[in-house]
Amino acid sequence: MLATRPRCECCDRDLPPDATNARICSFECTFCAACADTRLQGRCPNCGGELVARPRRPWQTLANNPASTTRIFRAEGCPPTVTDHSG
Q: Which InterPro entries does the protein's record reference (predicted)?
């Protein structure tokens, strides 16, 4: 089951379980769409994996399967992703 983390690791923006602007990698690192699309260019700064839309957990299931309350935040911010143009 996904942890559904509550905040963006880069900017600390709230990302509730029903957020449509949450992005995750395969390790569930969590970012808002603004950070994922611009600063990170769709790549996780932790593992290099692709950032995709996080599935939303139906509200009916939250009572028995609550979202995580564990906040992961990089106080130093996220470094911009370096794009390889060596081609």
A: DUF1272 (IPR010696)
**What is the four-CA torsion angle of 70, 79, 15, 75, rounded to 10 degrees?**
50
pTM score over 0.90: no
Could you give the count of Cα atoms lying within 13 Å of 54 in the half-sphere of its Cβ?
31
Domains and CATH numbers, the chain: 1-57 (3.30.40)
Q: Which of 52, 45, 33 is nearest to 81 (CA)?
A: 45
Place of tokens 């509550």: 6
